[in-house]
Structures are given as C-alpha cells and as structure tokens.
Automatic annotation (TrEMBL):
Gene Ontology MF term list: metallopeptidase activity
Keyword Protease tagged: no
Region (Disordered): 320-356
Biological process terms in GO annotation: proteasome-mediated ubiquitin-dependent protein catabolic process
One Pfam family recorded for the sequence: JAB
Name the record gives this protein: Proteasome regulatory non-ATPase subunit, putative
Keyword line: Proteasome
PANTHER family listed in its UniProt record: 26S PROTEASOME NON-ATPASE REGULATORY SUBUNIT 7, EUKARYOTIC TRANSLATION INITIATION FACTOR 3 SUBUNIT F-RELATED
Domain of life, per lineage: Eukaryota
GO CC annotations on file: proteasome complex
Transmembrane segments: none
InterPro entries per UniProt: EIF3F/CSN6-like_C, JAMM/MPN+_dom, MPN
Length: 356
C-alpha cells in the first residue's frame, strides 16, 4: 500500500508517551471531528513554493520545509464541513535525514507569528501545517501531535508537490483517525480541492499571462500526457491490487464502499478476450458521448449567438460613426460658409469706407 492513497501507521513519540502528553494529544486529535473536504487557495501554494525556493536556492541537496496553515471551517448547505485554507506562514525547520528522531521546529517563532497574524485578522486560526514532502516522513506524526497539542485539536497535514518535473497532484491533505494494530493514531487522506476567490483568479491570470498557452498542444506534449496518465493508472492499479491482497490475507478490514467501487470498475472494463466491449461500458460510453455532443452543440450555438451580437454591434457602431462623420462635415461646411460670408461683408465694408 502507498502512503498517499490509504494510510500510514505510526506510533506516538516515546518521550511524550512517558509524560502522558502523547496519548492525550493522540486521543484528542483522533476523537475530534474532521472536515469532509479541504479547500486550498493558490496563495498558500505560491507562498509554500516561494519558501521552498528561498531555502534551497544555494544548497545542492533539497531540504524539506514546513510551516503553519491558517483558515477556518465552513459548513455547506448540504451539511458537508469544509476546511478553507486561505493563508500560511513559514516556520524555521530542520531535520536529520539519516536519523528521523532528530528534528527541530522553532515553536517560539511560530507562536509569535501567529500572534501578529491574530492582531490583523482576529477571526483566523491555525488549522494545520504543511511540508514540501514529497511524501509523509517518519517524524511527521510527532510534529502533527505537537501541533495538535499547541494550536488546534485536529490539524490537517498538507503535503505539497514542489517538483515541477513531476506532473502529479499538487497537494494532498491528511488528518488523523484512531489507529489499527496497536497504533495510537494514523494518517488518513482527505479529499482536497483548489479554491480561489475572484481577486486570486485575476492575480493568477496575470502571473500566467507570459507563460505558454496550455490550450495549444503539440504531438510531444500529447504523448507525454498519455505516458503520465498511463503511469498514474499503473500506480493506482498496483495500489488497488495490494489493498485487495491485504484484505484477503486479513491484514486490513474489508470496506464495502471500496469493494463497491472496485466492482463498478470491473463491470466497466472492456472484454478484450471477446474483442468487444461490455454492455455496461457501452452504456457508459454512450452517456459520455451524448453529454459531450450536447456540450459541443451548446458551445456552437453560444458561439453563433456571440457572432450575431458582434455583427449587430459592429453595424450599429459603423452606422453611428458614419452619421457622426456626416454631421461633422455639415457643421464644417456651415462654419466655412459663415466665415466666408463674414469675410465678404468685412471686405465690402472696408471698400465702402475707402470711397470718398
């Protein structure tokens, strides 16, 4: 099983367990209700990538960075509790790669920064912490329990992909639940979305203005996208196979929801040995094709409607411009005639005055 798709069993820190803090923090973190979905704003991702780039700008080995996440909980009309992460700040962090038990996080700096944030935004609160990953490390549970003990009851742990060469999920969110097989708590994945306000969307458009248009593709990019998709599919199938083997051997409990999804996937697969598609796959393909056709037809109708409106607007503007030009010409001719008449009258008056 992979860490990203299911869970990672960990033990409580031995030192905290002796003091009684680890068990209380673990029980409190596991018993507190978690959010059903996590919404991460682009500002958080930009701040984290900037933090990672500044720390590793002059180092040959890429160090992991960490910080605290800020936001709040929101409840939708459907009753789903959503965690909205809209800000973050970096915290000095260091660890020994060879020894997972040796790590450092500046708590004084974190508390002082949060106190200053609280003065500006009184309603904001610490909802979790982040790291640059790329995966969950051995000492992450100890950090998670300490943050649960100091800042919030059940923090969310976000692992962000900072490697631009890997086109994977940009952020994965985890929370803690009661563990199995003697573990106090364990990480469990939470559905994650990327949400942005209108001002953030405008800022992202300005940032992406000088980049290559993603809608323009070449053969090489299409082949690379297919390759990455097949690799991701292979990883998911391997994970699914390992999960089913663990369930069959009794190492994991059976989940009816997961088995129902697996059964649906099996029904949709094509029957390659018969050189034809299954009935379920044909129905699913027809439904997808119908929705695609309706969307294409709607887009075509809307495009024609925009063309008609544009032609009407252009003809109206052309007519108004022509009328405005004609009025200006008539006005210019009238002014010229009046000026000519005034000049002739002045000339006649001057000649009459010269005569004896």
């Amino acid at each position: 099983m992979t860490q990203d798709d299911f869970s990672l069993d960990v033990d409580v820190d031995k030192k905290d367990a002796k003091d009684g803090k680890g068990d209380s923090a673990a029980v409190h973190a596991a018993s507190h209700p978690a959010s059903g979905r996590v919404d991460v704003h682009p500002l958080v991702l930009l701040s984290l990538v900037d933090h990672f780039a500044r720390v590793n700008s002059k180092s040959t080995t890429k160090k992991r960075v960490a910080g605290l996440l800020l936001g709040g909980y929101q409840k939708l009309a459907s009753g789903l509790q959503v965690l909205d992460i809209n800000n973050c700040f970096a915290v000095p962090f260091d660890e020994d790669v060879k020894s997972p038990d040796v790590w450092f996080l500046d708590w004084n700096y974190a508390e002082e920064m949060f106190r200053m944030y609280k003065k500006v935004l009184p309603k904001i609160s610490v909802v979790g912490w982040y790291s640059s990953g790329p995966t969950i490390c051995a000492n992450d549970m100890n950090l998670h329990l300490l943050i649960a003990n100091r800042f919030c009851a059940n923090p969310v742990y976000c692992v962000v992909n900072t490697d631009a060469t890997k086109k994977a999920t940009p952020v994965l969110a985890y929370t803690t639940i009661a563990g199995r097989d003697g573990a106090a708590v364990e990480f469990r994945n939470v559905p994650t979305n990327l949400g942005a306000l209108e001002a953030e969307e405008i800022g992202i458009e300005h940032l992406l203005r000088d980049l290559t248009d993603s809608t323009v593709t070449t053969l090489s990019t299409q082949v690379l996208d297919r390759q990455l998709s097949l690799q991701r599919l292979e990883q998911m199938l391997t994970t699914l196979q390992q999960y089913l083997l663990d369930v069959a051997d009794g190492r994991l409990p059976m989940c009816l929801d997961i088995l129902e999804i697996v059964q649906e996937i099996v029904n949709l697969r094509p029957r390659l040995h018969q050189l034809k598609a299954s009935k379920e796959m044909v129905m699913w393909t027809n439904d997808s094709a119908l929705s695609t056709f309706v969307a294409a037809a709607s887009r075509c109708v809307m495009a024609l409607y925009d063309v008609i409106l544009n032609r009407r607007r252009l003809s109206r503007e052309l007519k108004e411009s022509k009328e405005r030009r004609e009025e200006e010409l008539l006005k210019a001719k009238k002014d010229e005639a009046e000026k000519k008449a005034k000049d002739e009258a002045a000339k006649a008056k001057t000649e009459a005055e010269k005569k004896p």
